[in-house]
Amino acid sequence: MQKRVFYFIIFSMLGLAIFINLFLIFSIESVLKDELFSRLKSYANGIKDEVISSIQNSYYVNLKYQDYRISLIDEKGRVIYDNLSDNLPIHSDRIEIKNAMKNGESKSIRYSNTLLKRHLYYAVKIPTNKGEFILRIAKEQEYLYAIFMSFIPYILGEIIAVLIFSFLLAKYLTHIILRPIYNIDLKNLDEDLPYPELKILIETLKKQNKIIKSQFKNLKQKRQELQSLTKGMKDGLIIINRSGEILSINPSAQKYFVNLAKHTSISEIQNDLFLKLLLHNLRDFKDGKITSEIREQIVFMQETLVECEVVLSPIFSQKGKFKGLIIVICDITEFKRNQNLSKEFSANVTHELKTPLTSIMGNAEMIKNNLVKSDDLPHFIDTIYDESKRLLGLIEDILKLSFLDESSTKNIPFAKIELKNMVLKIYSNLKNIAKKYDIEFEFELEEGYIHGSKELLEYAIYNLCDNAIKYNNPGGYVKIKIRNLQDCVELSIKDSGIGIDKADQDHIFERFYCADKSYSKKVGGTGLGLSIVKSILAIHHAKLKLNSQKDIGSEFIITFDKI
Q: Where do the PAC domain residues begin and end (predicted)?
């Protein structure tokens, strides 16, 4: 605003000065023309008698003056005398001649084809005894230009002076005019105004100020809501403008980058692969080559490799102009791992089901084709029975795993359970098996109440106790302990069995994993028991800990939330 006022004053004064000078120039020119015509008329009247005498005597020597051009023209337009040129054509068509013949005198300004210059002409009619003649006096217009040229230095000096004065005056007036406006307190618009003309503007500012405050309050509230929503998001969220400046970033996104925060540029991202992907697509969005969201998969290096899906969703204005990007980073490592586990599980299921079925079919086919001796028939029947039983157990375990994978605590009925009674019930079902393997049970049981599914927990504890018997040494023991702690109930199942090698301890809960396949086959293991146990405990939010040493024994410690 200050510049506009400043330049307006300068150019206004300069324009006024130029207008005044042009007006003066045209005024002076008009005055000079009138003055020159007056002098031409006076000169013509002064030599009129001499001209009449020369016409009557046909002697024109005395008329040869050098200051003016003098011409005599008769009634027919013939030039009988001209002091600057001879043998002139007929002048009856000259405007000053025609008007002088008609009105007695005339004046004009026109270009002379004879002298090739612009002239001022004064013509007057002179009656003599030889007829009527026209006396024409002329002067070159350059005479006026010479006078004008003498004024140019003064005009230039005046314009320079006006420029300097305008600059100083504009600077002073700008300061005087705008200082009260600059001193207006926008926070307190009810104060006395420096100019009454600003009242409407101030009222408008008050209204706009209220609207802006309300909008700012709403934006701040929405921003807080957005931050609250994005703060709890598991997926990373980054919002950038079209220039690449980060407008918002949630904590989940910050873990993928180093020192990346709000108001920083994407060029500071320390991940070449992600930065290259982002810059390339940002350029295409700006150029209008891409208008829909893009999904790409990328690997981030953290403590371990994290595979993520990056979704780039463009933001457009109502007019379709690209404004920025919403970037969502989804961790799909677990999803990919589950996909691989699912594929591996399917392959293992096929293999594990195929093995007993092959044995059953093989033995049955031999019996069908009478290839088995009557003495060997019981052995083949026992094999078919054992493999069928193993196949049935495998199918039951697979169905149970499938049920657990698709279930949650919402559709599984939970109830109050007393662990001590449950353990004793499980022992009564395992007594005969323990006797068969020559295993002694020891108990240190306190009363402990938990919340859960009785059927599932019985299966999990039964499975752990059954493993403790079958993977034990003859004459060994299984010790079960229940401790009622301050915040939890702890169940411990410890055996004196073959133990688990340290390298296998991280894998024993994987499906179809067997640390010792030959021993598992011997005791009838399917490789799914511990995986089912892990899934059941996960549903109950229980923690499972394993302590084991090869050839010494294993201890499974389960911690339940107390009710």
A: 292-344
